[in-house]
Design a protein that fits this description.
This protein is an all-alpha fold. The chain is 66% helix and 0% strand.
């Protein structure tokens, strides 16, 4: 990931304001994400917990902890991390998406769809959210809704392998040759 930097518009008139500081990503966040990528979920969870102990207002830390907890099969901790993170930033689509995954992993599909709906209301172009919502509808046998969301995901991100695979599964299941 790239460290985000707040930049002033170079074409604007000079101001007496001090320059805005760079937004610094905590190294523990990067280390936790790296541990997640390498499948070391317990150490990743510990890394995110350490970060959140000092920075309880960091939604990315909650998202990382929720992902690690989900990989460890700890649905309760994943839901708690998402809920706490969403209390900090209710617009964090990653947290809504992870909350949906936690609910779906626990068989609570209506809650999973509701979590994705919240993310998609705030970010209608969230391709991964559409792909996951389509996958949930597919699982529930709601093929028209599944197709609508999967096609939207493909429209937003034509190279999205999840949406492509799920659309193929949908067409095989419904004996439709088109894709």
């Amino acid at each position: 990931l790239v460290t985000l930097v707040a930049c002033d518009d170079q074409n604007s008139a000079p101001t007496t304001q001090l320059p805005r500081p760079a937004l610094v990503v905590d190294p523990r966040l990067e280390q936790g994400r790296n541990l997640l990528r390498h499948g070391d979920y317990a150490r990743a969870a510990d890394q995110f917990r350490s970060l959140l102990a000092e920075r309880p207002d960091d939604p990315a830390g909650y998202a990382g902890l929720a992902s690690a907890a989900l990989k460890l099969g700890n649905i309760r901790e994943a839901v708690l991390a998402c809920s706490t993170g969403l209390a900090v930033d209710s617009t964090a689509s990653e947290l809504h998406n992870t909350l949906a995954a936690a609910y779906a992993g626990d068989g609570r599909y209506a809650l999973a769809i509701a979590a994705l709906d919240r993310a998609l209301r705030q970010h209608p172009d969230f391709a991964f959210g559409h792909a996951n919502r389509g996958g949930l509808h597919f699982k529930l046998g709601q093929y028209q809704l599944a197709e609508r969301h999967l096609r939207r995901a493909r429209q937003l991100d034509p190279d999205n392998p999840v949406a492509r695979r799920r659309l193929c599964e949908l067409f095989l299941k419904t004996a439709r040759p088109d894709s």
